[in-house]
Input
Amino acid sequence: MRSRTAQILLVALGVVVLASFLPLWVTGYVLGLLTMAYYFGVFAMAWDLLFGFAGEVNFGPTFLIGTGAYTAGILDNLYQPPIWICVAAGTLAAVAGGVVLALPALRVRGPYFGLTTLVAVLILQNFIVVDAHLTGGENGLTVPDVISISDTINYQIALWFMAISGAILFALARSPVGLILQASGQDAVQAGALGFNVTKHKLMAFIISAFFSGLAGALLVFYVGSASASSLVDITVGVQIIIAAVLGGRRTILGGAFGAIFIIAMSEALRPIGDLSNFVVYAMALVVVLLFPSGFYGLLMRTRDDI
Amino acid sequence: MAAAASLEVSGLTKRFGGLVAVKDMAFGVEAGKILGLIGPNGSGKSTVMKLIMGIERPDAGSVRIGGVEVAGWPSHKIARMGAGIVFQHSRPLHRQTVLENIKLALLPDKLTRLFTDPETDARARVIAGRVGLSAVLDRRPATLPFADLRKIEIAKAIARDPKVLLIDEPFAGLTSTETAAFSDLICELRDDGRAVLLVDHNVKSVARLVDRVLAMYVGERIAEGTTDEVMRDETVRRVYLGGSIETAARPESSFRDVATPFLEVDNLSVYYGKAQALEKVSIHVHAGEFVSVVGLNGAGKTTLFNAISGFLPYTGNIRREGSALRGQSAAAIARNGIVQCPEGRDLFVDMTVRENLDMGGQHLPHAESAEQIGGLFELFPILRERQKQNAGTLSGGEQQMLTIARALMMKPKLLILDEPTLGLAPVILEQLSKALERLRQTTPITVLLGEQNVTFALPHADRVYVLEHARIVWEGEPARFATEMGTGYL
Output
C-alpha cells in the first residue's frame, strides 16, 4: 500500500513537471485559464478531505475561501503590508472562521451540518454587500498589489502551490490520521468505541481544509488583483467546487484537481455555444455522477485494480 | 468484600421520551469471568451495553470500570479506560484491507501520527493470527464471508487490550462450526483476565460460556444466577417459554381453487452473479391457504419472496390466478394485492405508529381506512396504546406488529411474511401467533410465511415446504413434518 501511495505521487509529480513546461508552448490566455484551474483544484482537494474522509458535506467551501480572500484583500487595501503578510492573515482568518463554524456545526448531526455551512456562506455574502466601504460591495474589491504581472510566473506559482497542497493533503489522507478520520466519517459510534475522539479529528480536518482554502483564496486575490462575491463566495462557485471534487472522484484528494481542470477546460472549449456551455458542463457532471459515482480517478484506479 | 469487579454497574437508568428503556440495573463482572446478559427483544439489553460504552448517556446511575466512575463520559474516553465493544453489525472500512482495518484500532488518538511504525504492523499481524484472519490479511472486507467480518470486529476490539469486553449477539448468523471456534476465542479472552459481557436473546446460546447469567425484561432485571438457576426461574420461564406445537391444518382439497391455485411458482431459478440462489423451485398457494416455507438462513426464502414480489429477474414462471406476473412492476404486483412484509421491517421510523398505518392505507377511502385501522388495533392492541409514538422508539416485537399491520392496511389478498419472528422473544412470538391465528379464522386472507423458527411456522400452516440450499426438499402437512423432517429443526 505504501508503495502504491509513492507510485501515485510519483506519477502525479511527473504530470506536474510536464505541466511546468507548458508556458513554452501555449499562449498567455491558456496559461491564465490553467492558473485559475489550479487554484480551483486546491479548493476541490481541500473540500474532498472533509467530504471524502471526514464524511461531512461542507456546502460552504466558499465561506472559507471568501474569508481568506477578503481578509487578505482588505488588509492590503488598508495598510499595504507585504503581500505575504496579507496572505498569511487571510489564511489565519479562514482557519479561525473554520473553527468558529465547525465547532457548533459538528455538534449537529447529518444534514444539519451541511445546512449550517450553507448559511455561513449567505452570512458572509451579506456582510460583503452591506460593508461596502471595506469590501467594495457588489462592485468587488480591487487590491493595489499583485504577486506578479508575468503570466508564466503566476502560472508556475499556481501549479506548484497546487502540487504541494495536493501532496500534503494526499499524504495526510493516506496516513494513520487519515485512516482514523475515515473511520470517524463512516461510523462515528464505532470510532468512538475504539477510543478515538471523533470531534477532535473532524475539527482538525476542518481546520486543514480551511487552511488550504483560505490560502488559495488569498493567493488568488493577488493573482487576479481583485475579489468579488460572485466569483469567490457565491453558492454557485461552491457548487462548482463540489462538482469538481465529485467528478474527479470522492475520497481520492487528487481527483479534485482533475475535476477542476476538466470543468474549466470544458467551459472554455464550449465557449462558442454561449450560455449553453454551462448547461452542457453540468449535464456531463450529472452523467458522470450517476454512472460513475467514483469519478474519473475512481475509474482509472478500478481498471488498475482489476488487473 | 471481594476485590472490586472490573465492571460495576449500579442504579443504571435510561429513558427515551416516556419509555423507560433501562430501569435501575445493577451488576458486576469480575476479571476473568463471563456474564451473560439475556433478554427478549426490546428488553433493553442493547441499551445497557450502549450506556456502559458511553454511546448513550445514562439518566442516572453509576458505571465503574476498574473502579473509576465513567458514567456520562464520552465513548472514546470510556474506551481508553479499558472498555471495548464488539458490535453485532460490522462496518469495516471497505477501501482498506483487513490488516489496515486492524491497524486502525491500534492507532493512538493523536493528530500527529503521520507514519505507521513497523511495530503496529507486527502487532496487527499477531492479533489477526489470534482470531484466525492470517490467510486473508490483504483482502478487502467486501470479499470476505460473514464469519470473517465478525472476526475483524473482535480483532479490533482486542487490539485495544480492553479490561472489559462487551460482545453483542456473539453468534448471530454463524454456523455451528463457526460458533464453536468463536466460543473458544471468547474463552481465551476470558482466560487473559478480561471481564466479558455477552449480550444475547436466550440462555441456551451462551450457556456453555458464561459463569453467571442476568435476565432482563422490559428494562428491568428479572433474574440473576447460574445458568441452571436462571433457566429454572419462574419469571424467566413465563417470559421465555411458548406452548408446545399443535397443528391445525386444513386439507388441501378443502380450498376452492384446487385446479388453478391463487399463486403458482413453477420451476423458478434465480442467480446472483454466478451463485444460484434458487434452483427450479415450484410451490403453489391456494386462495385462503396458509403456507409456510421453512428453511435456515441463506436457504433462499427471501430470494423466493423477492422474485414473487417482482424485485428480481428469474427464469421459470410465477402465475397469479393462472396469468403470468412477469413484466409487472413490483409496485403493480403490490397494488394488486400481493404484499410483502420484508425481513428488515422497513418502517418509517420518524413517523408515528398511526402515520405509518395511514401510509399503508393511502389508497383507501378515509372511512374505510379508519375502519381498517380499528380492526388492526383489535388484532394488535399494543399498537393502539403506542399510536402517537414514533415507530423508531418501538421495541422489535412492536415494530414487527406494526409492519404486519401496515401491510394489512393495503388489504392484501396474499400476505408474504419474511421471518417475522427474527430476533423476537417467545412472549412476543405468542402474541404474533395469536394474531395470525385470528387472521386465519376470521378473514379470507392468504398467507405465505417464511421461517427458520419451526415452532412458529407449523401451528398456522395448512401446508409446509422445506427449502434447503436453493431447492425445495420436502412438501407436506405440518403434522408429518416432525416425523419426516424434524431432526435439525425442532
